[in-house]
TrEMBL record:
One of its GO terms (molecular function) is N-acetyltransferase activity. Gene3D superfamilies: 3.40.630.30. Keywords: Acyltransferase, Transferase. This is Ribosomal-protein-alanine N-acetyltransferase. Residues 153-173 are annotated as: Disordered. The keyword Transport does not apply.
Length: 173
């Protein structure tokens, strides 16, 4: 089922997370313009650069392979000194409140946990829903970046989550 603009309408049931495909980068840039109009939305070229750098990006796809959201993380160093920085998590406004953002975050954190990396991110200080989600996943506010988002001048919290490993989480030695 699609609407008259050719995009899926309504909920699509199960969402599949998979490595973000180059063919979907124009859609990512489209979502950036929708989601972040007051700031500096990423262009398709910015996403190309992220993938060329080897950063890890996931897409959230419905049954028709329509991109509903995306998320990316950069990993640096090696355990035990590895660090990860979540660059972005975004979900089409029409598909929010369905657990897609949570699933994307968990996918990124799984990658960070493979590296046993301490993980950082920035989030708008007025984004209470995102801050609550990050806190649920072990993040704490560790700093404030004044006028971080441009050109809006919105402030950002820097949040951090300690390094974890799948061994620690599962309780299996």
């Amino acid at each position: 089922m699609t609407d008259n603009a050719g995009k899926p309408s309504g909920t699509r049931g199960t969402v599949r997370l998979a490595k973000l495909l180059r063919r979907d980068l124009a859609r990512c840039a489209e979502l950036e313009r929708i989601l972040f109009p007051e700031d500096d939305p990423w262009s398709e070229g910015a996403f190309v650069s992220e993938l060329k750098r080897g950063n890890f990006y996931l897409g959230a796809y419905d049954a028709q392979e329509y991109l509903l959201g995306y998320a990316g993380i950069a990993l640096t160093g090696r355990p035990p000194d590895a660090e990860a920085e979540i660059h972005t998590i975004a979900v089409d406004p029409e598909y929010r409140r369905q657990g897609i953002g949570r699933a994307l975050l968990r996918g990124l954190l799984s990658k960070a946990d493979e590296w046993r990396a301490r993980t950082f991110l920035e989030v708008r200080t007025d984004n209470d829903a995102a801050i609550a989600l990050y806190r649920e996943h072990g993040f704490e506010i560790v700093g404030l970046r004044k006028r971080y988002y441009q050109p809006s001048g919105a402030d950002a919290h820097t949040m951090s989550r300690p390094a974890q490993s799948s061994v620690e989480e599962s309780g299996v030695p």
